[in-house]
Design goal:
With 259 residues, the chain is an alpha/beta fold. Helix content is 41%, strand content 8%. The protein has a single domain, classed as Creatininase (Rossmann fold, 3-Layer(aba) Sandwich), CATH 3.40.50. Helix 2 packs across helix 8, helix 3 runs parallel beside helix 4 and helix 6 crosses helix 8.
Length: 259
């Protein structure tokens, strides 16, 4: 069985090993995803799969240097924008608040570590994490930060087709991190993406917020907002490297913020 010498997964420890393996300065990594439609070619749990896979890659690269430990994932998030599609499961805002508050309370009670990196795989969780972060820090004494994978994978550009959901970037990452889950034969059958200006006005305009839905044909095609037809393993490998490298300075700043 894996132990502290071979694993950095909290659940692989025995209760007697926790205090000797972890310190106050250890960083707990919490993968957080969602359960929602990702077009006809990606599974419902894509965001959870990516959150866990990226967390593992980050720990593999930075774990020894910064003493990283992986917590059990939260695999359901805020996904009401995809509620039109079968299989989508979503917490409520109050439900997610309760889950995160209970989890942080338990972390402080049960573990010596006081640093928390939330590796967020779902863009719909971002606003909630930003709003709740100060409460979690102030109420439980946790030094925390959320790393939003989508913003690193798909930085906002002036591209003709913005990459928001299940498009080129997300599909490419899945081709590298979980290729067995990608329905490759369905990618070529996807239609051209909708008007990029409508996507920018509805989702990316920093001056307005709209309760948009991926079921809206003005911004999505079969639930996809982006162009999955352009996905490739090469592009996915570049994304994975970019995310893992970007995590390094974030971890350093998190430790520098520790009281």
């Amino acid at each position: 069985m894996a132990g502290p010498a071979t694993s950095r997964i909290i659940g692989d420890l025995t209760f007697q090993e926790v205090d000797s393996a972890l310190r106050k300065s250890s960083i707990l990594c919490l993968p957080m995803g969602s359960m929602e439609q990702h077009g006809p070619h990606l599974p419902l749990n894509t965001d959870a799969v990516l959150a866990e896979a990226f967390t593992d890659r980050i720990i593999e690269r930075w774990g020894e240097q910064h003493d990283l430990w992986r917590l059990p994932p939260i695999s359901i998030g805020l996904s009401r924008e995809h509620a039109w599609a079968a299989g989508t499961l979503s917490l409520s805002v109050s439900g997610m608040t309760a889950v995160l508050r209970d989890l942080c309370r338990e972390i402080v009670r049960a573990l010596p570590a006081r640093n928390l990196l939330i590796v967020n795989g779902h863009g719909g969780n971002r606003g909630m994490l930003e709003a709740l972060g100060r409460d979690l820090r102030g109420d439980f004494g946790l030094n925390l930060c959320a790393l939003h994978l989508g913003a690193i994978m798909s930085p906002v550009t002036d591209a003709t087709v913005p990459e928001i959901h299940a498009g080129k970037d997300e599909t490419s990452a899945m081709l590298v991190l979980a290729p067995e889950l990608v329905r490759r034969e369905r990618i070529s059958g996807l239609k051209a993406p909708p008007d990029g200006d409508a996507v920018r006005a509805t989702i990316l305009d920093p001056a307005t917020s709209w309760p948009w839905s991926s079921g809206d044909d003005l911004i999505a095609t079969a639930g996809v907002i982006g162009d999955a037809r352009a996905a490739s393993i090469e592009h996915g490998s570049a994304i994975v490297a970019r995310v893992v490298n970007a995590a390094g300075p974030v971890l350093e700043r998190l430790l520098a913020n520790q009281a």
